[in-house]
């Protein structure tokens, strides 16, 4: 089974609007971390936001927020007030903290911000 | 320190040749990871070091691949007898043991095997 599933290969959003990128995960570990990374065309992976499995509050970092629904095993990324520079690939990732330290990545969502 | 660096950024080689990539992590980071990313996919874990010890290796890491991290500082990833299927972006990341949110990626080395 896939550890991380991103079902939206491509998304479009109007500049200044909000957009939600979906991510579901699969783990039996009780202690895990969820991450979102942005990968522009230059190729570098840029860390955006982190949510720990025991965190009660949804994580927020500036215009990024993570909608964490533990029972549904979902960790959607919300980008508010989209900017043209947000156009990139977005990857959801998970690390199981008790069973090793590797990241499991999804297949990514390509976001295009339309002026 | 401006982050994780990788060298070279691009490498074109002929099938059957050996290649070596270097990763310099953020100086105080004791964990170092290698990933491979092919077009249209997310990064796939290859191997992980804590200091100089290689603690985990993926099944993706065939016998032609070897990684080292002498003295727990920079790391090298060598691919012997390259094959066209090795063409990919090779990403390095580093972190501190502890809070998982502190992992940072380098710019990657794009390998093309002709």
Summarize the structure.
The complex is a heterodimer of chains A (115) and B (114). Chain A is 0% helix and 51% strand. With 115 residues, chain A is mostly beta strands.
Task: Tell me what you see in this structure.
The complex is a heterodimer of chains A (115) and B (114). Chain A is mainly β. Helices cover 0% and strands 51% of the residues of chain A. The model of chain A has no long low-confidence stretch (mean pLDDT 93). Chain B contains no helices and eleven strands. With 114 residues, chain B is mainly β. In chain B, strands 2, 4, 5, 6, 9, 10 and 11 form a seven-stranded mixed beta sheet that branches. In chain B, strands 1-3-8-7 form a four-stranded antiparallel beta sheet, with no helix packed on it. In chain B, a hairpin with a 2-residue loop joins strand 5 (44-50) and strand 6.
Distance between the first and last residues' Cα of chain B: 35 Å
Shape of chain A: globular
Separation of the first and last Cα atoms of chain A: 38 Å
Oligomeric nature of the chains: heterodimer
Strand content of chain B: over 45%
User: How many runs of DSSP E, i.e. beta strands of chain B?
Assistant: 11
Strand % of chain A is over 45%
Structural classification of chain B:
mainly beta
Contiguous helical run count of chain A: 0
Main sheet makeup of chain A: 6 strands, mixed
Number of beta-strand segments of chain A: 12
Report low-confidence residues of chain A grouped into runs of 5 or more.
none
Gyration radius of chain B, in Å: 13 Å
Helical amount among residues of chain A, as a percent range? under 10%
The percentage helix of chain B is under 10%
Mean pLDDT of chain B: 90
């Amino acid at each position: 089974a896939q550890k991380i599933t991103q079902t939206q290969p491509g998304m479009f959003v109007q500049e200044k609007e909000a957009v939600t990128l979906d991510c579901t995960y699969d783990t039996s570990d009780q202690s895990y971390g969820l991450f979102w990374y942005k990968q522009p065309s230059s190729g570098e992976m840029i860390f955006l936001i982190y949510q720990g499995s025991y965190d009660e509050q949804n994580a927020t970092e500036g215009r990024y927020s993570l909608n964490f629904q533990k029972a549904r095993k979902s960790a959607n990324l919300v980008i508010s007030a989209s900017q043209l520079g947000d156009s990139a690939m977005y990857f959801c990732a998970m690390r199981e903290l008790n069973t090793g330290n590797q990241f499991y990545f999804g297949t990514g969502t390509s976001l295009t911000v339309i002026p | 320190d401006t982050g994780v660096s990788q060298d070279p950024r691009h490498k074109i080689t002929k099938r059957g040749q050996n290649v070596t990539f270097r990763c310099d992590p953020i100086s105080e980071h004791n964990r170092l990871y290698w990933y491979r990313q092919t077009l249209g996919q997310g990064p796939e874990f290859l191997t992980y070091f804590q200091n100089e010890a290689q603690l985990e290796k993926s099944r993706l890491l065939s016998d032609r691949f070897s990684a080292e991290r002498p003295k727990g500082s920079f790391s090298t990833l060598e691919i012997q007898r390259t094959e066209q299927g090795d063409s990919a972006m090779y990403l390095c990341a580093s972190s501190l043991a502890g809070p998982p949110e502190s992992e940072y990626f380098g710019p990657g080395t794009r390998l093309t095997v002709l």
